[in-house]
Amino acid sequence: MELIQNTPDLSAYLAADEVIDHHHPLVRETAARLADSADDSYDYARRAFEFVRDTIPHSADADDPRVTWRASDVLREKTGICHAKAHALAALLRAEDIPTALCYQRLLHDDGSGHCVHGLVAVRFHGAWHRQDPRGNKPGVDAQFSLAGEQLAFPVDVSSDEVDYPDLYAEPHPTVVGVLKAASDREYLWKTLPTVL
Predict the structure, then answer these.
(1) Rounded to an integer, what is the distance from CA 12 to the centroid of its chain?
(2) Which member of 45, 78, 151, 196 has the greatest number of CB atoms within 10 A?
(3) pLDDT above 90 covers what percent of the chain?
(4) Residue 175: which H helix or E strand, with range?
(5) Is residue 109 scored above 90 in pLDDT?
(6) CB-based contacts of 163-167 (< 8 A; 24+ apart in sequence)
(7) What is the DSSP string of 11-49?
(8) pLDDT at residue 181, rounded to an integer
(9) What's this model's pTM, rounded to 2 decimal places?
């Protein structure tokens, strides 16, 4: 699949905003701590990915009712669904000048109620974009940081009307952000996740 930048200006994929708030002190402190032990930008990106994947539980896996959406809040509260974790990873990567996009898949909802939109990121190295999924591993899910070939949490099954969206967004999709902001808790969020972009 060819990934498509939604904006040609690469600097847009380094920007901070209300959601990807990499100017926030907690994001900066976390990035500096991870960068301190990294050999280079690739090693930093891998460390940041593993930090978000492994130390911030996916709220569904942890049965955590809290809903986070802003990167700094995800890092402070140490919880979030896939979208929130993607926002946190994007902020950590952008804090160290690594162009990072938000991207999405349409997958079967794990509660069997149809489809939902799943969030991940793409990082730019060596002139190309590489998708990464910091959702968090569990039995049956083994996402790894890789520039050599995707190892995402969920392979898309086109026979089930699942979709890999090729678009690379500089800002989180407004539909996703709106749903996260409107959710009083994760149970409500689970019923209102977007089904398509």
Answers:
(1) 17
(2) 45
(3) 96
(4) helix 174-182
(5) no
(6) 163/105, 163/106, 164/1, 164/105, 165/103, 165/104, 165/105, 165/106, 165/197, 166/1, 166/2, 166/3, 166/4, 167/3, 167/4, 167/6, 167/103, 167/104, 167/197
(7) GGGG---SSS-TTSHHHHHHHHHHHHT-SSHHHHHHHHH
(8) 97
(9) 0.97
Question: Reduced to 3 states, what is the DSSP secondary structure of residue 88?
Answer: helix
Q: Are 106 and 162 in contact (CB under 8 A)?
A: yes
**How far apart, in whole angstroms, are the C-alpha atoms of residue 191 and residue 132?**
26
Residue 193 Cα to chain centre, angstroms:
15
- Token readout for 44 is 């930093």
- The reported pLDDT for the residue numbered 152 is 97
Number of H helices, E strands in the chain: 6, 6
Q: What is the pLDDT of residue 113?
A: 77
Going 38 to 39 to 42 to 46, the CA torsion angle's sign is: negative
Closest CA to 154 of 131, 175, 177, 176: 131
For range 8-24, the mean pLDDT? 97
Q: Please name every residue paired with 169 in a beta bridge, in sequence order, or none if there are none.
A: 102
Q: What percentage of the chain has pLDDT greater than the value 70?
A: 99
